[in-house]
Design goal:
The structure holds two protein chains of two kinds. Chain A has three helices and six strands. By secondary structure, chain A is an alpha+beta fold. Classes of the chains: A alpha+beta, B alpha+beta.
């Protein structure tokens, strides 16, 4: 099971950040959310927190998404020493998506109005 | 724990100093936040007859108590100051992210006073306030300026800034934040007069900690599920405010050619659906799922090829029917041009319409307009005129003063064509065809604004819009509710389907203040806010005589306006009497001593009670 992101459908409302924060933290704070939406001049890009890495990578640079040049750091899912996203702001503890709910029912997917986030079940 | 920051930041530009102050608990209980709290501070701190463009005037930027709590559509921010356009107290509300950033910085209010010696901007971060020179930023348009400030101070920086019009003191300059503006009343002009190009904030996101977090989280869930399926919000989220143009045209209350008519042929070309076809993406405010803004491509002018957020209905009105135009791409281009210079689209459109009518009546000619043929609908003359206003050149110099002053400067024969209330150009609702709006705009403490109390029941057809009976109490209530909403700040578009009851639950769980649990008390808070705003205006010398409409509304029956054809405002005095009575004002429109006491502001407004001049009659 995975969450599929269709960034072309994302409207940038960031309701997923609120939904995630509702689920995981006592007060709502998007910086403590396990999903973040990065808004550029003509794109909205939801990124879901992935595994923690102890070291910063050396493959930083520009990546291409649908023909758009983007900062590799922005689209990366990892929580790493050089990035501020996907860490608890006060403690620096890394954050990672846990497919919340039992059985899994990720809140970000449930609240997404634009269908930019969908659940894909793979064998 | 509470979502009130309880602190304000006071910045003095003349001395380059700043300091924090506690906000007394009583103020928060009496005025909540944003518009209410700002009005309280401005009333207490501004001396009567202060020059709006002098260093003594103050700008108060404020953010609502429910901002950044996860509640949707509560993160707009408010600017309050004495307006250079009206000379009254003025509030203007803007969207974008800037307000939430103020909240994260830990302030309910930022009060800016004095005047910087040279072009400057303020940068606020964890270390405090930095006073920085802005010589290299002068003349820059808000879009580039914001990008530049992000490059300079980090991607996470949010700014509220002005464009060239603000620097050159066009009296209706805006403050821009992101794609959104605090449009009306020349709040950007006040900033320009202080040589302040921008206020930038870069602080970590810290959601305020509510009194009862568990309950508030439940309410957030509840709010989102209500909003998700609400038809009006869905319409806002897709078509946005442009949907209004068709309905208002049918009702005959869409002002055409400087209020000569109430409907226009070819409205289908500028309908909500037509604008929807041009929509390339969405734009909106912090923590709002509605994202009512639509990004559309500009084809002409300095932003040609770029996308802008807009136009909203009011812009469509001001650059469309008001000028006899039904060309959607022209409206987008004119919107972009105003964004570029940083001017209010409603006032700009109204000034151009005023010039066109003078041209039609032969009061001005091509020798006054630098050769521009200002005939209704002549897009090729109107576009350069907007540019002239932005740069304050030629005819733009006088039009940049707003229609009221421009009328006086041009001469007596021009005055009757200037459509304004207390100096503020009228918004896109024809007062003759909807009497509730006539009263709401006439009595408004900020002039001809469409957002000072919307006659919802008349707009939805539940009450006869032509009747002049019994409108006083309902408009008084609409204004109270609007004042309250502006003090939370609850966005009118993003909160469809919510009522006072719901707001009161939000407030109690966020702040823990039990008094907010009563909707009656919330209404009273709204009343207190409009009352203190009125006291401010009375101190400035405003009175019943200023609560009026442009003369045309009384004497000239509305033409070519479908069902509203032939309507005039027959008896404004009766409407006003009812309204004053509903709010406990004297027949001169002054709050009575008993009323001030009842609202608990007799001490604050003692100048009003002590001065017998105000209490005559």
């Amino acid at each position: 099971m995975r969450i599929k992101i269709d960034h072309t459908k994302c409207t940038g409302c960031k309701l997923c950040e609120v939904a995630c924060s509702l689920q995981h933290t006592e007060a709502i704070n998007p910086w403590r959310s396990r999903i973040r939406v990065f808004i550029g001049e003509d794109f909205c890009l939801p990124v879901i927190a992935g595994p923690y890495t102890e070291a910063a990578c050396n493959a930083k640079g520009i990546v291409m998404v649908d023909g758009m040049e983007m900062d590799g750091c922005v689209v990366c899912r990892a929580s790493c020493p050089v990035k501020t996203a996907f860490k608890e702001p006060d403690t620096g503890i890394p954050l990672k998506c846990d497919f919340c709910g039992e059985p899994p029912d990720p809140q970000c997917v449930r609240w997404c109005e634009a269908d930019a986030l969908t659940i894909v079940i793979e064998d | 724990m509470t979502t009130f920051a309880g602190k304000l930041l006071r910045i003095n530009l003349s001395a380059s100093t700043y300091g924090e102050e506690e906000i007394p608990d009583l103020y928060l209980r009496q005025f909540i936040s944003a518009r209410g709290l700002s009005a309280r501070y401005l009333y207490a701190e501004l001396k009567p007859k202060t020059d709006p463009l002098g260093p003594e005037n103050k700008i108060i930027m404020s953010i609502g108590v429910l901002a950044s709590t996860g509640l949707q559509g509560f993160s707009k921010w408010c600017v309050m100051s004495k307006s250079p356009l009206t000379g009254t107290i003025f509030r203007s509300i803007a969207g974008g992210n800037f307000g939430a950033w103020m909240k994260h910085a830990g302030y309910d209010l930022i009060i800016i006073e004095g005047r910087a010696p040279g072009a400057s901007y303020i940068y606020l971060d964890k270390e405090g306030v930095h006073f920085l020179k802005a010589d290299d930023l002068s003349g820059m348009d808000p879009r580039h300026l914001q990008r530049k400030l992000k490059e300079r101070h980090g991607f996470h920086t949010e700014s509220a800034c002005i464009g060239m019009a603000g620097e050159r003191l066009v009296r209706y300059a805006v403050i821009t934040s992101g794609e959104r503006t605090a449009s009306r009343g020349g709040m950007g002009t006040v900033m320009g007069s202080k040589n302040l190009k921008a206020v930038s904030i870069n602080v970590p996101v810290r959601g305020p900690v509510p009194f009862d977090g568990v309950r508030l989280k439940g309410l957030v869930r509840q709010q989102i599920s209500i909003l998700k399926d609400h038809p009006r919000r869905k319409k806002m989220s897709t078509i946005g405010t442009p949907y209004l143009s068709i309905g208002l045209n049918e009702a005959g209350i869409l002002p055409v050619r400087n209020f000569q008519a109430g409907s226009i042929k070819g409205i289908q070309d500028i309908s909500g659906e037509e604008f929807y076809k041009l929509k390339k993406g969405k734009a909106g405010c912090y923590q709002c799922m509605t994202r009512c803004g639509g990004m559309r491509e500009v084809t002409r002018g300095p932003l040609s090829g770029k996308q802008i957020d807009g136009p909203e209905y009011e812009t469509i009105y001001a650059f469309g029917p008001l000028l006899g135009i039904t060309d959607k791409s022209f409206i987008i281009d004119a919107n972009a041009l105003c964004d570029y210079y940083g001017m209010d689209t409603i006032s700009t459109g109204a000034c151009v319409a005023f010039a066109c009518e003078l041209f039609e009546k032969g009061i001005i000619s091509t020798s006054d307009t630098d050769g521009l043929e200002l005939v209704w609908g002549n897009k090729n003359a109107i576009f350069p005129l907007i540019e002239k206003i932005g740069k304050r050149e030629g005819l733009g110099r006088v039009l940049g003063e707003g229609v009221a002053r421009a009328g006086e400067q041009i001469g007596e024969e021009a005055v009757i064509y200037s459509k304004h209330i207390k100096g503020l150009e009228l918004a896109g609702y024809e007062p003759r065809g909807i009497k509730g709006y006539a009263l709401s705009m006439a009595s408004s403490n900020i002039g001809g604004s469409h957002m000072y109390g919307r006659p919802r029941e008349e707009l939805t057809g539940k009450v006869d819009p032509f009747s002049e009976e019994g409108k006083g109490p309902s408009i008084a209530q609409a204004q109270r509710e609007q004042a309250l909403e502006d003090s939370l700040i609850a966005c009118t578009f993003g909160n469809s389907g919510l009522d006072l009851m719901m707001y009161s639950e939000f407030l109690t769980s966020a702040t823990g203040v039990e008094e907010f649990g009563s909707t009656e008390n919330l209404s009273r808070i709204g009343e207190r806010i409009i009352c203190i705003e009125r006291c401010f205006n009375i101190r400035e010398g405003f009175g019943r005589i200023d609560d009026s409409l442009p003369k045309r509304m009384f004497s000239e029956p509305l033409r070519n306006a479908g069902p509203s054809t032939g309507q005039v405002v027959k008896n404004i005095d009766k409407l006003l009497d009812e309204y004053y009575e509903a709010l406990g004002y004297t027949c001169e429109g002054v709050p009575t001593a008993e009323k001030l006491k009842d609202l608990g502001i007799e001490e604050l407004a003692k100048e009003i009670t002590n001065d017998r001049r105000f209490l005559a009659n």
